Amino acid sequence: MKALLLLAAGMLVAAPAWTQNRVIPQAGLKSGFEFLSPDLKKMQLDDFANPGTLWVDRGEKLWRAEAGAAKKSCADCHGDARASMKGVAARYPQVDRHSGDLMTLEARILQSRVERQKAVPFARESEDLLALSAYVAYQSRGMAMEADIEGAARKHFDAGEAMFFRRRGQLNLNCAHCHDANWGRTLYAERISQGQPNAYPAYRLEWQTLGSLERRLRACLSGVRAEILPFGSPEYADLALYLSWRAKGLPIETPGVRR
Amino acid sequence: MQYAVNAAAALLVAAMAAGFAQAQTPPLSLVPYVVAGGSIEKPLAAPGNVQRGQAIVLDKSLSSCVLCHVVPDPEHRPMGNIAPPLAGVGARLSAGQMRLRLVDSTLLNAHSIMPPYYRVEGLHQVAPAWRGKPIMSAQQIEDMVAWLLTLKEPPR
Q1: CB neighbours of A74 closer than 8 A, spacing ≥ 6?
Q2: Among candidates B60, B113, B125 on the partner chain, residue whose Cβ is nearest the Cβ of A169
Q3: How large is the ipTM?
Q4: Residues in chain B within 8 Å Cβ distance of A177
């Protein structure tokens, strides 16, 4: 009996992260897609109507274009993205084996561009970075999100989770107040979504352009009158990892269309 | 120092006034107030103006009230349904109870999601433009209280 108790205690201590409590059970996950009007759903589903296709096409050209002092293209190392990048975005953000840093897809693309291509990095939210990240994520379209939160990723996951539940800004709200506890209800004139990240980079009507998940997170921070952290801040990556875990099983929709 | 002594005394008095009463020391930039028995009895400013209060509550970008609450509105603008409708709130709550909920509803319920309209301390990562400033001025709080008290009719 004592041994059993000890074993049970040991299991508690070593509980793997997938036993983490989910506020929204996996069966209840709803992509932001489900909160769109029929017109916008149609726009996302039709590649000819979806404005995000423009960035995906541009990304495909960039993938094959030589760049930097190394005179290499992405394709020179990674080959055909349709094969090599399939499923990659579904597993991001991911810890960099060498630095231990948590990398979003955008950060990884920038890293490759500087370290492998020896090129000037793209600016955050630039058309080129959005195009390449949309093109890479597009290769996982329809695949389930499955970010790894074990091992080296765990501390980033914990930080992201803490950020999700931390009240902030002059309005003193946390992410869960809207996206766990009140999704489906109406905020002014719009239904609140679950805040799922599976469509990014996405074309947002409010922006009239494609934008990253980080840009979307900044919009929420600004809404609660909280400090906006610079693009590429580790806090965004941590939060993105928590969101990816929270969205586990939702299909990648990149390029999504959102309000 | 004098302020601190006074504040400490006020806290002690308030705590003694009612066994479970909460009391707190507002920061110097805000008009001091005392929370007791689920209420802030003393007005924070001059008596509220009903018309101004209505304009503030119905102005979505100024007060954000209608983002979450349905409020009686002659113009029937869009409104949210995250929090209870405010029709009839003037019959349900006293001025002091309303004032406390507007000032900082987490003093009543730590889990409340209603933004604290008259609080600047204990907030995390407030954007520089808003740091140290309450969402509403003391007079705006009183104006809102004045109009909300006129909402006696329950929602239809």
Answers
A1: A62, A63, A64, A81, A112, A132
A2: B125
A3: 0.88
A4: 113
